[in-house]
Amino acid sequence: MKTQKAFFVDVQRCIGCYTCAMACKNIYAVDSGIAWRNLQPVKDDVYPHRDMAFYSLACNHCEQPACAEACPEEAIYKRDQDGAVVIDPDKCTGEKNCITACPYGVPKFNDKTGQAEKCHLCHTRLDAGKQPGCVESCPTGALTLMSLAKIKDKAVAFPPGFKKTSIGPSIRFRLAKVPRIVRRDS
Question: Tell me, which fold does domain 15-174 have in CATH?
Answer without folding.
Answer: Alpha-Beta Plaits (3.30.70)
